[in-house]
Design a protein that fits this description.
Largest sheet: 6 strands, mixed
Structural class: alpha+beta
Number of helices: 11
Distance between the termini: 60 Å
Helix content: 25-40%
Strand order of the largest sheet: 16-15-17-20-19-18
Length: 358
């Protein structure tokens, strides 16, 4: 890159062809309009600048840069980087002063390879910034932006960023859409018919807001009875192993209660708990288990499904088909203080719900 400051007399005596391909390093105001910084000059723009210098309308030096053979203009650099970073769930907007936004194609959950994002942004002059990994987003929402700092940048630097963005064949930024799953629930809690109806209504609202269908709840009337483990096993056998429902909600089972009959019933069928407690509040007593190809999301009291908790960060991801593990749940600790000002991370249905006390 060659950068130069041309005085008014130098510009007035300049051949227009010399300016073609040069990039403005500062905005220039002419009587015919303003040329913004970063503008690549063509013959017409170059001629206008020379005419303005000759007429006295341009009374300050012109700051220009000419690209070298290995240089890219900021818009082209941002475009290449955005193409590399974007998954199928996002689309690109037109560049605005070298910033190019990535927009969600559909409702779903944002996924960001945060380790790669950090390494990419460690390359001088490259900028890719996003919303939170795991955040619920809506179609048309800006989820990330791509930008380069200088108006001209080495193609080698951009190539290094592209390599990081594309490594392992995975997108740097993507939005996974919801899938039309069938979801059922198991309730192991002595509750009234009114409370059970309230639970089913809340569960249906949440599940259907995310594009799936709620099939209702299996109610274990006496969760501490002698045959409760058999009833739980039968419910799991039917819902998971026979009907193969991918997501099951479980109410009334505490992550901290090893005496709950739910756990031996789950283990007897080959299932296991992936995580006791999610490192976020409210919702630290929420748990996640797996059985066959299904995920089971549990809360200590079924009434918690009527409130806004960390479960509302987990459920959307399950309903995109993501097979969450303990590692992904551990990552919820960053940003896990789910105070009202953090509700933007939740699905729209949960943003105005009450939170549990304490």
């Amino acid at each position: 890159m060659l950068a130069q400051r041309l005085s008014q007399p130098e510009l007035a005596g300049c051949d227009p062809s010399r300016l073609v391909g040069a990039v403005l390093l500062a905005p220039v105001r002419l009587t015919t309009g303003t040329l913004r910084k970063g503008t690549r000059l063509d013959a017409e723009a170059g001629g206008s600048l020379i005419a303005a210098a000759r007429s006295g309308d341009l009374d300050r030096p012109l700051r220009l840069a000419w690209p070298g053979p290995d240089d890219l203009h900021e818009d082209e650099a941002a475009r290449r980087l955005a193409v590399a970073a974007a998954g199928t769930g996002v689309k690109q907007s037109a560049p605005r002063q070298s910033r190019l936004d990535l927009v969600a194609r559909w409702d779903g959950v944002l996924h960001v390879r945060t380790d790669a994002l950090l390494r990419l942004n460690a390359i001088d002059s490259l900028e890719v910034f996003t919303l939170f990994h795991g955040q619920v987003v809506q179609a048309g929402q800006v989820v990330a932006s791509v930008k380069v700092a200088p108006h001209l940048i080495s193609s080698a630097a951009v190539g290094e960023g592209i390599q990081i963005a594309c490594e392992n064949g995975l997108p740097l930024v993507d939005v996974r859409h919801y899938k039309p799953f069938d979801v059922a629930a198991i309730v192991l809690e002595s509750v009234s018919s009114v409370d059970l109806a309230r639970f089913e209504s809340a569960a249906r609202m949440k599940v259907e807001a995310l594009g799936s269908r709620f099939l209702g709840a299996r109610f274990i009337a006496k969760p501490d009875g002698e045959d409760s483990e058999d009833q739980i096993r039968a419910a799991l056998q039917e819902l998971v192993l026979e009907r193969r429902l991918p997501v099951i909600l479980v109410g009334g089972v505490s992550a901290g209660d090893p005496l709950s009959p739910f756990y031996p019933a789950l283990e007897s069928l080959g299932g296991r708990v992936l995580r006791h407690g999610i490192p976020a509040h409210p919702g630290s007593m929420i748990w996640l288990a797996e059985l066959a190809q299904s995920r089971l999301l549990g809360v200590p009291q079924c009434g918690m499904f009527t409130l806004a908790t960390a479960a509302d960060l987990v459920l959307p991801r399950l309903l995109t088909g993501e097979r969450l593990t303990s590692k992904e749940l551990a990552e919820l600790a960053h940003g896990g203080v789910l105070t009202p000002e953090m509700r933007f991370r939740f699905p729209p249905y949960a943003r105005d719900l009450e939170a549990p006390e304490g």
